[in-house]
Amino acid sequence: MSLAIMVQGTASDVGKSMLVAGLCRIFAQDGQRTAPFKSQNMALNSGITPDGKEMGRAQIFQAEAAGIAPDVRMNPVLLKPTSDRKAQVVLMGKVATNMDAVTYHNYKPQLKAQIREVYQSLAAEHDVMVLEGAGSPAEINLRDRDIVNMGMAELAQCPVILVADIDRGGVFAAIYGTIALLLEHEKWRVKGVIINKFRGDVALLYSGIEQIEALTGVPVLGVMPWLNVDLEDEDSVVLERGKYDSAAVKDLDIAVLQLPYMSNFTDFNALAAQPDVRLRYVSKPDELNNHDLVIVPGSKNTLGDLRWLRENGLEQALLAHHRNHGAVLGICGGYQMLGQHIYDEVESGLGEMPGLGLLDVVTHFASEKTTTRVSGQVQSALPGLFAASSGAALQGYEIHLGETRRGENTAPFATFTSCNMRPCHHIDGAISADGRVLGTYLHGLFDSGEFTRSLLNALRLRKGLRPWEGENFDYRQHKEAQFTILADSMREHIDIERIYQIMREHQEQRV
């Protein structure tokens, strides 16, 4: 019987995903076969497992922290919002249906047996399971059909650690209020509290910690400082808080259009980590000026986001950037928007719409979603900015509806020779004849260091700057170093031995 611990939060964005990743790394360092698990994830950041299944990016990077390959069993239910009230429901890595919030809430009880079976299957193969909740367990309006917080803790028969974010204020009220709203059998599962994102002298908290422990009967296991680790965020709320809007002066200034239904903004983490890049997310026309490259990202509602670009003036700003000889890159839905026309009878219900007209391609949506892990290389003899990238190795994944066909005035971007670990010959993407506009379906494009550095050096040369000297920035090594920093800090500031004790005591009670 595996050990297990569940990390729940007093609210969204309190740092649950990061602390789960840190625990995964710690337990793996200690020689334990460890796996993350989140029964239900609502996010537009998703990735693909080696066998072609779609799951949340948070569980993928937590699996990386544990040193194992992502497995769709780590995230059996993924909800991808398509509007304010509806979401695409992905079950065990494949699209099941689209539902509104009320319909899905009524549907959740039907998922419990499958979630229990999936969890038990994964737990049987590992020594330690680290579970993650969603939002807050004190959402009492959802309690009767909960499958991701206390409902999941009961299915897994595991103890819970509650995480509270002190940076947003009211941390003791959040801890007390959350525990007070739990039912007695739910309170029993809460074995510890972690106060997260603290800035300052921890001595100032001691009296408050003593009082909250007396009021709740739950010990505080540690106070994590504000930690500037460069790891993936699950929620796009970090963009609203300006996490990536660095004021530092860098040689290259790159903008990403912050679409309302932007998906996979984690595509740009590797780009933001480059030493000579300032990456900014822009949502207003007057913010788009003098950029070396503008990126149109993926979207879960391509036509809806394209219409938004037109209504708020960003389309004209982007076209003006292009007329001024600026470079443009589109990924997935962004690639589709750059074309001449999009025909959609599947995703948005908007029918058809002319594209931005920067690439000679046309997209027709289809009902079946492409979910593929791929590797290959950039085509040879590419024009313009991408000439130096010719032949560079690539790997990543595709998640999209529909097919995009190139016209005569574009060149293909890449050839993939491995698809879901099987040999293939798949041509991807399009580049304009002048070599200033690129579209591709490849998520994780900038994780490929050789391609990224060749593109950045081409942008540097356009500005009259020398190419960046030294080895290519290795984003995978960078992430490994960040996981180690996170784990070391957690060992320093959290009572990890007490967490082991909590798991063992609970295991003995189950036996």
From TrEMBL:
Cite the CobB/CobQ-like glutamine amidotransferase domain residue spans from the record: 253-450
| Ranges for domain CobQ/CobB/MinD/ParA nucleotide binding | 5-227
The pathway this protein participates in, as annotated, is: Cofactor biosynthesis; adenosylcobalamin biosynthesis
Q: Which UniProt keywords apply?
A: Cobalamin biosynthesis, Glutamine amidotransferase
- Positions in coiled-coil regions: none
In the UniProt record, the signal sequence range is: none
Keyword check for Transcription regulation, yes or no. Answer: no
- State the superkingdom: Bacteria
Q: Name one Pfam family in it.
A: CbiA
Q: Name one GO molecular function term.
A: catalytic activity
| Function summary | Catalyzes amidations at positions B, D, E, and G on adenosylcobyrinic A,C-diamide. NH(2) groups are provided by glutamine, and one molecule of ATP is hydrogenolyzed for each amidation.
Give the matching HAMAP family: CobQ
Protein name (record): Cobyric acid synthase
Q: What species does this protein belong to? A: Buttiauxella warmboldiae
Q: What is the lineage of its organism?
A: Bacteria, Pseudomonadati, Pseudomonadota, Gammaproteobacteria, Enterobacterales
Its gene name is cobQ
